[in-house]
Specification:
Blueprint (H helix, E strand, L loop, with lengths): L2 H24 L1 H6 L5 H22 L2 H9 L6 H25 L1 H7 L6 H26 L3 H25 L8 H17 L1 H6 L6 H35 L10 H36 L5 H24 L2 H4 L14 H17 L1 H5 L3 H26 L1 H26 L6 H19 L6 H36 L1
C-alpha cells in the first residue's frame, strides 16, 4: 500500500477519534447558545477554557512529542520510555492540581469567578485526568491502534453531549449555570481513567539520569513552543475584554463581545480539528519515515495534498455560513464575518505543522520554540494595536498574519537544515484563489435559500473537479506506485 494512502487511512481513523468527537462537541454550541446561556455567560465559558488550554501545556511538559521521539528509536525499551514520560507528566500534573485546589478561592477571585471556587477545583481535576491519559493515548498512536483511539474519544464525547443535555435541558439549576459545562466535562473525562485503567496500573515510577536528562532537554523547548502556540491561539480570547474599548460594539459589553467571538470562533475551529486529526496520524508517520532517503519528496507530496484538502474545506465552510449560522443562537450572528479569515489562519497553521517536521526529526526543537515565541510576541503586538480599531475582526486578522509569518519562517529555516521540495507556487495559487472565491461568493445575493445552497454546492463540486483534473496525473502515479509496494 502507498505510504500516502496509508497515512490518509490513519488520518480518517484519527479523524474519528479526534475530529468526529469535536464535531459532535461542536453540537454543544447550539445547546449552549440557543436559549441557555446569554452572550456574557458564554464569554465566561470562553475565557475559562482559554486559561485551561494554557495550563494544560505545562501539565504535559512536551512529553507527548518527546515520547514519540524516544520510543521511535531503534532498539529502545518502549515500556521504559513510557514509564519515564508518564512519571514526568504525573509528577507535574498532580503537584499543580493540588496547588490549584488548595488555592481555588483566591485563584477564582483573580480571574473574575470569585463566587465559584468550585469551577477551579473541577477544572484542575479535568486537567489532571487529561494529562494522566495523554501518554497512554500517545502509545496508541505510536502502535497505530487508531480504531481503539477513536472508540475512546467518541465514547467520551457522547457522554459529554448526553451530560450537557441532561444538566442544561432536563435538570437545570440557574444557581449553577455555566458550572454545568465544567462539571459535565469532569464526569465525561473520568471515563478515560476507566478506559486506560490497566495501562495506568501497569505504570511504574521511573527515572534514568541519562535518558531522563535527554528527554527533559528535548521536552522543555516543546513545552515552551506549546505555550507560545497557545498564546497565538487563545490570547485574543483572554485579552479582548481588556483591549476592546467600551461601547465599541453598540449596546454590547466587552464580555458579550467575547461571547460572540467565542461562539463564531467555533466554526473556524472545524478547520483546526481536521488539522489535528492529520497531525495525530502524521507525527509518528514523519518520525518513522524521516530516515528514508526519499522522505523530502514524500513530505512535499503530503503537504501538497494537505493544502488542497484544506482549501476545499475552507471553501465548503466559508460559503455556507448562511446555513451553518443556525448552529448558534441569533444573538451571536453579528460576528460570522470573521469566520473565513480564521479558517485561513488555521490553514496556515496546518501547513506550519507540516513544515515543522524538519526541526523535530533533526532534534532542533529549539527552532520551534524560537518561531513560536516570535509568533506569540507578534500576536500580543498585533492584538494590542488592532483590537481597539477593528475589534474581534482585528484579532482574526492578527491570527492569519501570525500563522502566515510562522509558516514562512519555518520554511525558510527548514530549507537549510532539512530541504524539502514543497510545491510553493501551486500551493499559493490554491490558497489565494480559494479565499478570493469565498469572498466573491459571499458577496452575491440570492432570491432564496434553496438557490443559494444549490449555487454553493455547484461551486464546491466544480472546484473539487478542477482540482482533481489538475492533480489527476500525480494521483494516478501515486495509486500505481501504491500497488507496486
Amino acid at each position: 500500500m502507498s505510504r500516502i494512502k496509508r497515512l490518509a487511512g490513519d488520518t480518517v481513523l484519527y479523524g474519528l477519534g479526534s475530529m468526529l468527537p469535536r464535531v459532535l462537541n461542536f453540537l454543544l454550541v447550539p445547546l449552549h447558545t440557543i436559549g441557555t446561556f446569554n452572550r456574557a455567560e458564554y464569554g465566561v465559558i470562553t475565557s475559562l477554557f482559554a486559561i485551561v488550554a494554557f495550563v494544560n501545556v505545562v501539565y504535559l511538559f512536551g512529553m507527548e512529542t518527546t515520547y514519540f521521539r524516544f520510543a521511535s528509536k531503534d532498539g529502545v525499551d518502549k515500556k521504559r520510555i513510557f514509564n519515564l514520560a508518564q512519571t514526568v507528566v504525573l509528577t507535574i500534573s498532580v503537584s499543580l492540581s493540588i496547588l490549584f485546589i488548595v488555592f481555588a478561592r483566591p485563584i477564582a477571585a483573580s480571574i473574575g469567578a470569585g463566587a465559584k471556587p468550585e469551577y477551579i477545583i473541577w477544572l484542575s481535576v479535568i486537567m489532571l485526568i487529561d494529562a494522566s491519559t495523554a501518554i497512554p493515548f500517545a502509545q496508541l498512536r505510536l502502535e497505530r491502534k487508531a480504531l481503539l483511539f477513536a472508540s475512546a474519544k467518541v465514547t467520551n464525547v457522547v457522554l459529554l453531549f448526553g451530560l450537557n443535555y441532561y444538566f442544561l435541558k432536563i435538570d437545570f439549576d440557574s444557581s449553577i449555570g455555566v458550572g454545568y459545562v465544567f462539571f459535565a466535562n469532569l464526569i465525561a473525562n473520568s471515563f478515560f481513567v476507566l478506559f486506560f485503567l490497566k495501562t495506568l496500573l501497569r505504570w511504574r515510577p521511573a527515572f534514568d539520569k541519562e535518558v531522563s536528562g535527554h528527554m527533559f532537554r528535548y521536552a522543555y523547548p516543546v513545552m515552551l513552543t506549546g505555550l507560545a502556540g497557545m498564546t497565538n491561539e487563545m490570547f485574543s480570547r483572554l485579552t479582548l475584554e481588556w483591549w476592546l474599548p467600551q461601547n465599541f460594539y453598540h449596546g454590547q459589553t466587552t464580555q458579550e463581545a467575547l461571547g460572540i467571538f467565542g461562539a463564531c470562533y467555533k466554526f473556524a475551529v472545524l478547520m483546526n480539528l481536521g488539522v489535528q486529526a492529520f497531525r495525530y496520524a502524521a507525527e509518528p508517520f514523519f518520525f518513522s519515515h524521516a530516515v528514508h532517503k526519499d522522505s523530502p519528496q514524500l513530505f512535499a507530496k503530503i503537504n501538497h495534498y494537505f493544502v488542497i484538502t484544506c482549501c476545499l474545506f475552507l471553501l465548503g465552510v466559508g460559503i455556507n455560513l448562511d446555513l451553518l449560522k443556525y448552529f448558534i443562537g441569533p444573538q451571536f450572528w453579528d460576528g460570522l464575518y470573521i469566520v473565513p479569515i480564521l479558517l485561513l489562519a488555521y490553514l496556515f497553521l496546518g501547513v506550519y505543522y507540516n513544515m515543522s517536521v524538519w526541526f523535530k526529526v533533526t532534534d532542533r526543537t529549539y527552532f520551534g520554540t524560537l518561531i513560536s515565541i516570535g509568533g506569540a510576541v507578534l500576536t500580543v503586538v498585533l492584538n494590542y494595536l488592532i483590537i481597539p480599531i477593528l475589534g474581534y475582526y482585528g484579532s482574526s486578522i492578527a491570527a492569519a498574519a501570525v500563522y502566515g509569518a510562522m509558516m514562512i519562517t519555518c520554511y525558510a529555516f527548514g530549507q537549510k537544515y532539512f530541504p524539502v521540495p514543497y510545491q510553493l507556487t501551486s500551493g499559493f495559487l490554491y490558497i489565494t484563489i480559494t479565499y478570493l472565491l469565498v469572498i466573491a461568493v459571499n458577496s452575491m445575493t440570492f432570491s432564496s435559500q434553496i438557490i443559494a445552497t444549490a449555487c454553493h454546492l455547484a461551486v464546491i463540486v466544480g472546484c473539487s473537479g478542477v482540482a482533481f483534473v489538475i492533480e489527476r496525473k500525480e494521483l494516478t502515479n501515486e495509486m500505481l506506485g501504491g500497488r507496486s509496494q
